[in-house]
Design goal:
By secondary structure, the protein is α+β, with helices and mostly antiparallel strands. It contains eight helices and 18 strands. A hairpin with a 2-residue loop joins strand 17 (321-325) and strand 18 (328-331).
Length: 332
């Protein structure tokens, strides 16, 4: 089989400029030292200015992904004094970049998928797991109502003398049916929150537990330990690691907005805001650029349309949004 035809197999000239550019980025990484292929590539670039723009945007994105996960990368393409601007972006005759960029690009995709999939594995096998991108409402056998956030999971264990919930991942809010003879206890990591006839939320993220009370009282303690703090309506607490020193916090009125699809940010770091919105879209959201990571934003965002909310964040920060697949969104 002719090598050149093999390299052009799978190419469809009816594709959009964006799709053709993505195909050429991969081909030039794999076969960048092939003279015939490079000649065809330059012919394709010369056909339309849109080809040049689309190629350089996608090639830059591919390299940014590699830079994002490669320690101390060094550039492989340098322009020389003989390359002139001819109305199109210059196209360097690049050496084969398979060893760095394809490997790094594939590794970047693997890292993204692995980081995204690992938390998902916790959800499988749970009594209740919410894999959707919306808050789910559940009613337990004692009529307690549970609002289970996206990408969250719980196990339910009801005994004659107590009702126990194990929060495996994410966030849940409980409107507890009172029963003095069967206390309602939520476990998360090594922390437990015992309801005393109440409505409250528990969140588990990176082994840090947050308990927030909307109504009634909640006693918070370590598993098998004495009560550390008792919270009343409008109060919350955060526990992490082995430190048992806790301080009550006063909750803003917007703190339970996620129950109705509202995310309120007050001077929230951009990476933290995107992480919060990521919960409500499929796949991962990747932010490229160190400077923007230090910025903060305030505002109210609609998690029921999180993709648009992410676009709004990008607009506020003058960033470009690239959706590589339905499961990978990049802001750069």
């Amino acid at each position: 089989m002719n090598t050149q035809n093999h390299k052009m197999s799978g190419y469809d000239p009816s594709w959009s400029a964006e799709e053709q550019a993505q195909w050429w980025v991969v081909q030039m990484d794999l076969y960048g030292d092939d003279v015939e292929l490079h000649a065809r590539f330059e012919d394709w670039i010369a056909q339309d200015i849109a080809h040049s723009v689309a190629y350089h945007q996608n090639d830059s994105l591919w390299e940014d992904m590699a830079f994002a996960i490669t320690p101390n990368p060094t550039p492989t393409v340098q322009l020389n004094d003989q390359q002139k601007y001819d109305g199109r972006m210059p196209v360097a005759r690049t050496p084969k970049r398979t060893g760095r960029w394809i490997g790094a690009g594939v590794l970047a995709c693997m890292v993204v998928l692995t980081v995204w999939l690992m938390p998902q594995l916790r959800l499988y096998g749970a009594d209740y797991a919410n894999m959707s991108n919306e808050v789910e409402r559940l009613v337990l056998e004692d009529k307690t109502v549970v609002f289970l956030d996206s990408q969250s999971a719980i196990d339910v264990r009801y005994h004659p003398d107590r009702r126990e919930i194990n929060l495996l991942s994410g966030r849940a809010f409980f409107e507890v049916t009172p029963n003095k003879t069967r206390p309602f206890i939520v476990h998360a990591a090594e922390t437990q929150a015992r309801a005393l006839g109440t409505a409250y939320g528990v969140r588990l993220e990176d082994e840090v537990v947050q308990v927030k009370v909307r109504e009634g009282l909640v006693g918070v303690s370590r598993d098998q330990g004495d009560e550390l703090v008792r919270l009343q309506a409008g109060q919350g607490v955060r526990l992490g690691g082995q430190n048992d020193h806790v301080e009550k916090t006063i909750l803003p009125q917007t703190d339970f907005g996620w129950l109705t699809g509202q995310l309120t940010a007050e001077n929230l770091r951009v990476p933290d805001l995107l992480t919060a919105l990521e919960r409500y879209v499929p796949g991962r959201v990747v932010l490229i650029g160190q400077a923007v990571r230090e910025k903060t934003l305030s505002g109210r965002f609609d998690t029921k349309n999180a993709a648009q909310a992410i676009d709004d964040v990008a607009l506020l920060l003058n960033l470009n949004v690239v959706r590589v697949t339905p499961y990978l969104t990049i802001l750069k």
